[in-house]
Amino acid sequence: MGVSVSLQGNSNHFIGLFYHTVYFLVSTDICEPGWTYFGGYCYFTSPACASWLTAESNCSAMNSDLVTVHNQEENVFIQHRHDGAKSWIGLNDRSVEGSFVWTNKEISSFRFWAPKQPNDWNNEDCVHTLGVRHGYTWNDVPCDNCFNFTCFTGKRSIVRRLDIDRSLLTD
To answer: What does the alpha-carbon distance between residue 115 and residue 152 come to, in Å, rounded to a whole number?
Structure first.
């Protein structure tokens, strides 16, 4: 049986037909306005600086977390969103000195420390990115410093389902 399905709109549609149900993905519909989609997540880049705790609270108020960095590609993406300036990420050792964890409790072994970091100089328990001029590396700093920040939601690709009336299908 030959089936022709036409969807209007964005050219980034994935179309598959399974048992007379069409599944499609429109990447522009995944994230809320003001958020950016990259690598399976939605990201919000703050327009102003805040302390690490305020940044974490702001992210939580948007049903998200300070960003967990999974790989170098994502690390560079996040830092480019801040035009290469320093910015908070969700890594910290506030509970146990030297035991860095992500705010969302996710396990990610990716780390990209600057040389001789982390060093806990002057009670540094929160982590920020150093930007392009420092090779996209990270540093531990006091949590009350003021930096812009990145929030993210763990939304994976959302696939929408459209049931098609079988009577519309033709041979």
So the answer is: 27
